[in-house]
Amino acid sequence: xxxxxxxxxxxxxxxxxxxxxxxxxxxxxxxxxxxxxxxLDTDVGTIQKIISFYTLITASLMLISAKLxxxxxxxxxxxxxxxxxxxxxLIAAISPNVTALFTGWALLEGIGSALMGxxxxxxxxxxxxxxxxxKALAVVSTMAGLAxxxxxxxxGFVTTFLSWRFGFGFELIxxxxxxxxxxxxxxxxxxxxxxxxxxxxxxLSVAGLLLFMSGILQLSGKNIKLCVILVIVxxxxxxxxxxxxxxxxxxxxTPLFDVRLLKDRNLRNGTLVRLITAxxxxxxxxxxxxxxxxxxxxxxxxxxxxxxxxxxxxxxxxFIAPKTAMKIGHRYGMLIGFVIAVGGxxxxxxxxxxxxxxxxxxxxxxxxxxxxGFPMSLSVDVPLSNIxxxxxxxxxxxxSTGQSLGMSMGTAVIGVVLTLGAVSGLREAINxxxxxxxxxxxxxxxxxxxxxxxxxxxxxxMTVKDQDAYQKIINAVYHDAMRVVMMVAVGVxxxxxxxxxxxxxxxxxxxxxxxxxxxxxxx
Length: 523
What we know:
Blueprint: H1 3-7, H2 10-24, H3 33-39, H4 44-71, H5 74-93, H6 98-127, H7 130-161, H8 165-181, H9 199-217, H10 224-250, H11 265-294, H12 300-328, H13 330-348, H14 358-378, H15 392-424, H16 426-432, H17 440-452, H18 467-501, H19 514-522
Helix pairs in contact: 2-6, 2-7, 2-8, 4-5, 4-6, 4-9, 4-15, 5-6, 5-8, 7-12, 7-19, 9-10, 9-15, 11-12, 11-14, 11-15, 11-18, 12-13, 12-14, 13-14, 13-18, 15-18, 16-18
């Protein structure tokens, strides 16, 4: 490595910019849902599916992307991902309907993000060395964390004072900046050939994940039979993927992912811990956004402000978590974080009332976010702690897949829980307030329309006579549903605690190795 290469920070600026918009995209549209529902004449269920498929497409292609950077080259795959991401940004910004929004945001941006993701870390690791690499990876980590923290506020600002479309437009400006300066990134040598690409394994892995999430999303449409069928088929496909990869490895061929590595408990369970952390984070962020927009009738900007304690808590803890882990170990650091997050859930459980305000939600939101910050920032190092250098790329891809899949599952599953919780609370709410002159079937139809449209319903299209009583019932239903959401989050976190106990701690490993550097970059 020559001196000029060591001293140039322009590659870091380019990569950090890409990491920023990729992270920003996962949070800024949550607060814009209400306006998107109106502008595109759609419903919250459809937006939920688009958000889920964005992270799902990213997850399903992550392993392939990790392999393609070895075959095509890090810079080329990064460039290709950025171009596809930029086209998706443009389509999403001008989308006249939900089909165009899905194509631009979920499909193209999802593909672009998947192609860029694994290359971000490897480009930095290959460009800088020693203390420079540590600093560079820390900058990328900070930029990604900052994007997650300010995402809701940014989305709320552009939606309230301009339009949610300007959010994608802002990202497009950064995309253009990256494309202009991408040659500042070194053109790394390829380490594999096209014959090393496992096409059959790639198809099976993508199909398995898509079938699984398609099945989960059927729950929101109450199509239980189709849900079960799709989930069973997805399990069969994923098992086929595992057997195929095992046979390919034993035959001496290069697999998409060597499943024998899953014998390592830290890789296997550590990836699940990261998936669980992403699931509860994305799921509760989605559910709370729906509540703030639908019940409290907040603007997108005020909704972003209300969500700030949670995201800021995560960001602040991400800075202290690595130092804490060096003193008490990664495993205990994650356990402490999960316990704090459970405390935040119980605090929030009874706070989602029709008159809830910033101060009433602030303590629970901050504690919950701070708690999740520990496992989110520490759960990359642990899975990779025992992995040999030659398998680092594919295993990093697996861990990234777990995170993206967790975010997709969170939006889908917690969204379904919110709906089911609302339905279960209808009877109690109706009995509490003035009975309406409506049959149960008619009331449910009105309630479902109201919820799916996030309250943006023309009163003339509804058959409810007593609008005030109806509004009280809907608010009570949402309150009960949010209680269910937070208790489901507790249940999922408890599963994360159990898995964390099974991990082998890496407290005694040297803090300056590349694994800890990767931890800094991806937390």
